[in-house]
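Contributing new records

If you add data, match the layout below exactly. Sequence lines come first and carry their own label; structure lines follow with theirs. Keep one chain per record. Anything else will be rejected by the validation script.
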Amino acid sequence: MELHIWARSGGHCGRSEPYLAPPGVDLPDQMECARPELVQIWMPHLVKICFSVSTDLVEIWTRLTLLAGSDGDDDKESTATKEVQSSVSNEAVPSDVGLFGNITENLREVCISMGTDHFRILANDYPKTKREYSGVNRFLNPSAFTRVLPNGEVVSRDWLVYSPGKTCVFCFPCILFSSDRSIKLCTSGDNDWKNITQNLKSHETSTKHIDSVLTLAHRSAAAGRIDAELHKNMIEQHKYWKNVLTRCVAIIAFLLDSTPDITHTDQLTIIIRHVNITNYEPVERFLTFIPISSHTGQNLADTLLQYLPEQNIDFTHCRGQTYDNASNMSGKYIGMQQILKNKNSLVDYIPCAGHSLNLVGQSAMDCCVEAVSYFGFLQRLYTFFVVSTHRWGILLIHIEHKPHCLIPKHLSDTRWSARADATEAVFQGYRQFHSALEEIPADDSQNRDTQNQANALAEHMGTIEVSFMCELWNDILQRFNQCSKLLQSATIELTTAIGLLKSLAQFISDCRETFDI
């Protein structure tokens, strides 16, 4: 048996509208009669049809409601009509979520009105869920419907429902609202009882599950019905983690370094790192420069511990300290980090990742004679041009017509980004640099020493070894420099830093494999 959708013009607004009519029931000539009274007349036929064919009952009722209330007067809907809506909707949706079938908007509305408790089927045991793993029988355990919070409190998993028809468990909010149909808990169900605990933990902490639960709570509130337990658990979890983050705001970490200024006065730089309470993101704040006379770990620690109380900063709230790898800072016995840790055992020391990376790069270069020779050449090239305005002018003439061509850069032992810049400059303007060097020996205005230096540099730059090292080190140092800059970000996380270093190590390893030895 099927339903017919009829359209007839007229009515109050003179527009054509669709009307549902069961076979054998004539539509009235005047559409203005199609109001709650008409719905009451049609409803017995509709109920009979809906129980005899697989028709979406809720969708039929929605269309009838739109028809009956098209004049915008909801107050005219009769009490009998509301009772029919309630009884028909409840009859149409099975209590077993495994038998839902296609998820429609109308099904969501009915499920929201019923609440999660209507679909939860709890028992002391579930004998029909038996599964065999290597000769061992496993069943669904009632403990799967609860979980233990980090503070030891046991709470109910009100989102988890059991399907007797499929002998599986499902996530009720995800069934209704998740768009990811690859999740077993919202499609076919999960009956892997051996790994169910881990599966549920992974699911309930996923972003998609949390979004679905929040959507259900929001829709329930909009419909005038809150699923009390589910909503209560979400609120409690929200408060728990908010309190954790709020406590983290009082926790600080220290970043220290020392360096001489232009007056050759050595100064200790103090920076604190804390959590912003508004967005829960890490923030770094510079505090001060403090002149120091000694670089011993004890003196540096005493200087810091004396400064903090003056600024009303409680050292017991500190949970981290970060410096470079100098022995006076990182020493295991008398280094600054150990002295501070003796004062506060919770102050964990984390070496500066950027500085550690620089040390690795420096040590790797020192192990290769060819690399030492190449970077020595870059420094000589920079010095040759920069000490004379005349030579610098000749170089600028050669590179001014080359797009993105850089001037020579000075090398630095502590800042490996300078080595990356120096190598990139030569890589981008290799021909222009070489042409400028070749022009200078032919310039009679230059003295003999300058001509000889230019000629020697031009010959060395023309060798296959220099061109090869320039190509190789430019690739390595650009990747190296990108990693170093990311490690210096104020918002970088420890896990991200580890991933960056592993990626860089893999890149270097892949570079090795591209050459035959």
